[in-house]
Design goal:
The chain has helices spanning 55-61, 77-80, 87-93, 103-112, 114-117, 176-179, 204-214, 231-237; strands at 2-7, 37-41, 46-49, 69-71, 97-101, 128-132, 138-140, 143-152, 155-162, 165-168, 187-191, 218-222, 242-244, 250-252. By secondary structure, the chain is α/β, with parallel strands linked by helices. A hairpin with a 4-residue loop joins strand 2 (37-41) and strand 3 (46-49). Bound molecules: zinc ion (ZN) (3 copies).
């Protein structure tokens, strides 16, 4: 299985428009962060988790020509604003794009992309095939996917586990019952917005405490804002098995 970080930034991306802070003006290419999303190639399927506003640019950069499904963590725009561009894959794969999310998230997609679901379809609009998931394992063409329900302040958000890899973003808290699903991981990807805690996101100490508790073999931090350390400074603050993710990073399992 191969995972590619399409984007590792928080909702603004880095640099933030108009910001001259140390992180936004860093010359290190690893401090340029598009909105968070990953590409998972299992050998059977190609999945993307979330399709934010940088989806088109990410697909071009990684030369992606095939996606079997989009898995949505939650409805926030930094995770869903790029879905109009699944059109390209409708042409390439000659089918509607399968999109998986919980009911509330798919209802939001139907509202935000009302033209896609209208009876009077404008020619050339995207084709989306919505699949409702709940907090139970589901299968897509031979791959089992286990949702993990975490909380983004009060909003339920799904993380996803495939084999011994899990991706958890926009989490503030993880219920004990869900933590069990995150044991025995080779790789955990976890969001870590900034150094200090935030009402709906983990700060650095909270993220490292959770990693310590779950004991994955390796962990990568993503969904990083300009209020987090720069890539290099963050790397210097992390334990040996925890790494800052960066755009374009690939990991093989
Ligand atoms: Zn987000
Ligand atoms: Zn900044
Ligand atoms: Zn969010």
């Amino acid at each position: 299985m191969k995972v590619t970080f399409l984007g590792t930034g928080a909702s603004h991306g880095i640099p933030v428009i108009g910001c001259r802070c140390e992180v936004c003006t860093s010359v290190n290419p690893k401090d340029k962060r598009l909105r968070s999303s990953i590409l998972i190639e299992t050998g059977r399927n190609v999945f993307v988790v979330d399709a934010g506003p940088d989806f088109r640019q990410q697909m071009l950069r990684e030369q992606v020509t095939r996606i079997n499904a989009v898995l949505l963590t939650h409805e926030h725009k930094d995770h869903t604003a790029g879905l109009d561009d699944v059109r390209a894959f409708n042409y390439l794969m000659k089918k509607a794009m399968s999109i998986y999310g919980e009911n509330r998230v798919l209802d939001s997609i139907k509202r935000e992309y009302a033209y896609v679901f209208s009876d009077d379809k404008y020619p050339g609009i995207p084709e989306m095939d919505l699949h409702v998931i709940d907090n139970h394992v589901f299968e897509i063409q031979g791959d089992d996917i286990l949702p993990i329900q975490v909380f983004h302040n009060l909003l339920p958000v799904f993380g996803f586990r495939i084999q011994n890899f899990a991706y958890v973003t926009d989490a503030k808290t993880v219920p004990d019952s869900e933590k069990k699903k995150l044991l025995n991981l080779d790789v955990l990807v976890l969001s870590c917005l900034r150094v200090k805690p935030h009402i709906s996101h983990m700060g650095l100490e909270e993220a490292l405490d959770l990693i310590e508790e779950l004991q994955p073999r390796k962990a990568y931090l993503t969904h990083i804002s300009h209020m987090q350390y720069s890539y290099q400074d963050l790397d210097n603050h992390l334990p040996v098995n925890v790494f800052p993710a960066y755009d374009g990073l690939t990991i093989q399992m």
